[in-house]
Design brief:
heterodimer; A: alpha/beta; Rossmann fold; five-stranded parallel beta sheet; two-stranded antiparallel sheet; 10 helices; B: alpha+beta; Cytochrome-c3 Hydrogenase, chain B; 2 domains; four-stranded mixed beta sheet; three-stranded antiparallel beta sheet; 41% helix
Chain lengths: 308, 480
């Protein structure tokens, strides 16, 4: 029986819910593994079951999963312990792979973050930033691979049940698994004619589509003038249905599967994609944070001098 | 010799917390604290973002109740833009909200709470989990896995994406519901309603009667309550006015955009989570003997503040509940019972909305125009009243954001319940993993994402515990 350990860092638990969304096949999958550590479902504690331990302790496992990016010093320690104890280590979800939405915080210093939360805001009675019995925040949000080597990255915000099931099934058989290498556009059925029919528009109105008709009859949303991160974003979000999830709701891609490859620069990729169909990237407000909304770790987003 | 116990992590909850218990020289509990050890700082990094992106960014606060953030955010955007969604757009939002509630209440009761009902709070921690439940009750577990997954499928049909949805937009909803899709959803809604009816009947027969004695003692505190009601005082989850009830049952009502007149947030140095309190009640104190400003949210709060529930099966359950426990009901573990009443209400509401003649209309959103404005959006998230408050500049970029989320309201009550539980259960330096897990149970009751390890389905506990409450009286209900 393969042993599985799971930990979560700066997370929302959406990836953990995605595991449950595997549905009935999950029951068979669970018969093939012994979960040795997983705070969301299991009662194994980090410092002993009665809280008297002094050393962080995670049992040995064949497969380890980490969700979430590194946001505090304790995440760092747990990441190292997971790496030490797990034969294969998976970074699951975009936050673990490239920072995700929480890495938008990398636009600001940790001090600015805490000023806002504990000393600003219409309802907050100002107090000092908490420091007792809580781990110190790191200077920024890190992807897991910035702290320890990772064997497999499964991006997505959240990732898909199909991806999780396929990856675990492959690993349990001793086979390898790789996420899709294509872009969201490669999976999108909308009609592309390589030419925009409008200047850039904010998403403040509905795009043109005929309710009830297939998406293959709808003009590409970016060619309709709505900024879509499909060209710079890794595909696979549609799972077995193929069609990207947001496109099904007539919404543009926001980039939630992260950059197409680990080294890609979404800013550069998007500038090129926009220009090639005749759109002017300068019209986009909040460009850096929009293009890197899910990729702020790894130095892609950083505080700018003078930004308040 | 004094001693500190650190229970870390609190498990089978959504998110990161630990409990720090300090024992004095005699081995009595001097202090117990729930340290929330996570901070991401959404209120900071939302500044500068285009306001129309907020319904896409803020669901990432919580992957268990992303729909609540999505909808509160879309409503705040409506207010910023001064837009009123068309009827169909509003109905689709409300439908998604109720489907999401079903999914979450099922998740909590069966996936997270059931391990303790079936296996006992003092069971071997290695099997006290959902896998243990699968082995103990495979038929029910398989049915539940199926229906919960079906709820996710319904959300996918409605919006393209079940977790971190995109379809609620400023001014409405981006995806009309075709009549074909509506007809696919109806049998699913019927099956979910059947499960909701089965669940509350099952719990009333096999679960609640056996843990009522524990309900009367564990984590019990006396507080006020906050929830949303309609003009007629009925339970409302998508829209309404806020009702803030004092412990004696009297209450104030106000439009949700006036929340800052009634609620303030206190900061403690030992938790990243802030502590909201009712600021007109004379200050803030978590002193168990003389609490001040403390109110609770989430299922029990909503069931307490409403006059009635606008669907018949859930209304009948409310009447039965009230006849047994009065109003407001204060016992912390009744959160579980209230949750199943809400599960039933939402299942009824989904069937009702799918029968609405306008649900398949194609007029689902209006165009909006940026302006400098402030807008407040509020829904009842499964975990409690959820407030999003945005201010924008003339370009529609966020200049300030204030968020108060469901669980945050319960920050002080959770600490008080844990303190009460620890002081009642740990004496003379004696404790074991079962006692400490029982302390954790008083946290789990508060959150639909939290497991309640309190109550044994079979009414038996694995060992005999010498347990004494805060007044020194022996509680024999935790023994065989």
């Amino acid at each position: 029986m393969a042993r599985l350990a799971e930990e979560w860092f700066a997370i929302c638990a959406g990836c953990e819910v995605t595991i449950l969304d595997i549905g009935e096949p999950l029951i068979d999958l669970l018969k093939q593994v012994t979960i040795v550590h997983m705070p969301v479902l299991m009662d194994h504690k980090l410092y002993g079951q009665t809280g008297e331990g002094t050393e962080l302790e995670i049992p040995e496992a064949d497969i380890g999963i980490i969700t979430g990016g590194i946001r505090n010093e304790e995440h760092r320690k747990i990441a190292r312990e997971m790496r030490k104890k797990c034969k294969t280590l998976i970074a699951m979800g975009t936050c673990a792979c490239s920072g995700g939405v929480p890495a938008l915080a990398n636009l600001y210093t940790t001090e600015q973050l805490c000023d806002q939360v504990y000393r600003d805001g219409v309802t907050t009675v100002a107090g000092a930033t908490p420091t007792e019995e809580v781990p110190a925040l790191t200077d920024r949000v890190y992807a897991v691979s910035e702290e320890v080597p990772v064997d497999l990255q499964l991006p997505g915000c959240p990732t898909t049940p199909e991806t999780v099931a396929a990856a675990l099934t492959a690993l349990l058989k001793g086979e390898s698994y790789a996420p899709m290498a294509k872009s969201v556009c490669d999976e999108c059925p909308a009609v592309r004619e390589k030419k925009a029919v409008s200047t850039l528009k904010r998403r403040l109105e509905a795009p043109a589509f005929t309710p009830g008709r297939p998406l293959s009859e709808m003009r590409c949303l970016m060619e309709q003038g709505f900024l879509c991160l499909g060209p710079a974003t890794r595909g696979g979000c549609g799972g077995s249905q193929g069609t990207p999830r947001c496109i099904r709701a007539y919404m543009t891609c926001e980039g939630c599967f992260g950059p197409i490859s680990e080294r890609a620069n979404p800013m550069v990729d998007m500038m090129g994609a926009l220009s090639s169909i005749g759109l002017d990237p300068k019209q986009i407000p909040d460009r850096a944070a929009t293009f890197n909304r899910f990729a702020g770790a790894g130095g892609r987003l950083r505080p700018l001098p003078g930004r308040k | 010799m004094s001693k500190t116990l650190v229970i870390q992590p609190v498990t089978r909850i959504e998110g990161h917390a630990r409990i720090t218990i300090t024992l004095d020289d005699a081995g009595e509990v001097e202090r117990a604290r729930v340290n929330v050890i996570e901070l991401r700082g959404f209120e900071r990094f939302c500044i500068g973002r285009p306001v129309e992106d907020m319904p896409r960014i803020t669901p990432r606060i919580c992957g268990v109740c992303p729909w609540s953030h999505h909808l509160a955010s879309a409503k705040a955007c409506d207010a910023v833009f001064g837009a009123t969604p068309p009827l169909t757009g509003r109905l689709l939002r409300e439908l998604c909200n109720s489907v999401a509630y079903m999914e979450e209440h099922i998740l909590h009761f069966y996936f997270l709470a059931a391990p303790d009902f079936l296996l006992g709070p003092d069971a071997d921690p290695a099997i006290r989990n959902v896998i243990g439940v699968l082995q103990a009750a495979p038929d029910i577990a398989t049915r539940v896995v199926r229906v919960r997954h079906m709820c996710a499928t319904m959300l996918e049909i409605l919006s393209g994406k079940a977790i971190h949805p995109q379809a609620a937009v400023p001014g409405g909803f981006s995806k009309p519901l075709s009549t074909e899709d509506r007809d696919r959803l109806r049998p699913m809604a019927d099956e979910a309603l059947e499960l909701a009816q089965f669940t509350i009947a099952f719990a009333k027969e096999h679960v609640f009667p056996k843990y009522l004695e524990t309900v009367k003692t564990l984590g019990v505190i006396n507080t006020g309550f906050l929830g949303t009601v309609g003009d007629d005082g009925s339970l409302q989850l998508y829209d309404g006015k806020l009702r803030l009830m004092r412990p004696d049952g009297t209450f104030d009502e106000f439009a949700y955009d006036r929340y800052a007149d009634y609620i303030a947030e206190h900061v403690e140095p030992w938790s990243y989570l802030k502590f909201p309190y009712a600021k007109q009640w004379g200050g803030f104190s978590m002193d168990l003997a003389a609490p001040q400003g403390i109110y609770r949210t989430n299922t029990l709060a909503r069931i307490n503040v409403c006059e009635r529930i606008p669907t018949p099966l859930a209304q009948a359950e409310l009447e039965e509940f009230r006849a047994s426990f009065g109003r407001p009901a204060q016992l912390t573990l009744l959160y579980h019972w209230a949750r199943l009443i809400e599960l039933l209400h939402n299942a009824e509401n989904v069937v009702r909305l799918l029968a609405h003649p306008e649900i398949s209309g194609t007029d689902t959103r209006v165009k909006v125009t940026p302006r400098a404005a402030r807008g407040v959006g509020c829904v009842e998230a499964p975990r409690g009243t959820l407030i999003h408050d945005y201010t924008t500049d003339a370009d529609g970029l966020i200049t300030s954001a204030n968020l108060i989320v469901g669980t945050t309201h319960n920050s002080a009550p959770i600490n008080m319940s844990v303190t009460q539980a620890a002081k009642g259960l740990i004496h003379g330096g004696r404790y074991d993993q079962g006692i400490l897990n029982t302390v954790e149970m008083s946290i789990r009751a508060y959150d639909p994402c939290l497991s309640c390890a309190t109550h044994a389905l079979n009414g038996r506990f694995a060992v005999r515990l010498d347990i004494v409450d805060a007044t020194g009286q022996v509680i024999d209900t935790l023994t065989n």
